[in-house]
Amino acid sequence: MIRASSRTFLAACGTVCVALGVVGIFLPLLPTTPFLLLAAWLFARSSPRLHHWLLNHPRLGPILASWQSGRGLERGVRRRILLALWGGMSLSMLLIGKLWAVLLLGTIGFCVSIYILRQPVYETS
Predict the structure, then answer these.
(1) Which residues on neighbouring strands pair with residue 74, listed in sequence order?
(2) Rounded to 5, what percent of the chain is helix, strand, coil?
(3) How many CB atoms lie within 10 A of CB 14?
(4) pTM flag (> 0.70)
(5) Distance between CA atoms of 65 and 69, rounded to whole angstroms?
(6) What is the distance between the alpha carbons of residues 85 and 79, in angstroms, rounded to a whole number?
(7) What's the rounded mean pLDDT across residues 101-123?
(8) Across the chain, which distance is largest between two alpha carbons, in Å?
(9) pLDDT tens column, 73-85
């Protein structure tokens, strides 16, 4: 059983993760999905009301619900993730212009791309 103070802390951390995830929608290098997945996990352990709110959110909920059910990602979502990932990485590589940054960002982008491409795909009806 989780104590009330621990539930409050987990819910607060979940709220911060949701905020970071929403900011990540607009900033290319701040990841959205990992923060939202973490928020869903934190809310599931701290606040059923917040967990329900997040899963039923009109914009954020469908991706989280499909992920949690094991269905994976929609083909269009996967495509948008990869385009945003590589668009942001390419822009950062050009702006920084250092070999170490290009190698580091390229490696991170490659690894994240492999991870995303290995996720199950489902088609919406």
Answers:
(1) 122
(2) 75, 5, 20
(3) 25
(4) no
(5) 6
(6) 10
(7) 88
(8) 51
(9) 778 878 888 888 8
Say what the pLDDT of residue 15 is: 96
1: DSSP letter: -
How far is it, in rounded angstroms, from Cα 27 to Cα 42? 23
Residue pair 32/1 in contact (Cβ under 8 Å)? The answer is no
Work out the burial of residue 17: count CB atoms within 10 Å of its CB; fewer than 13 is exposed, 13-18 middle, 19 or more buried: buried
**Mean pLDDT on 43-50:** 94
Q: List b or e across 47-79, with b for residues whose CB sees 16 or more CB atoms inside 10 angstroms.
A: beebbeebbeeeebbebbebbeeeebbbeebee
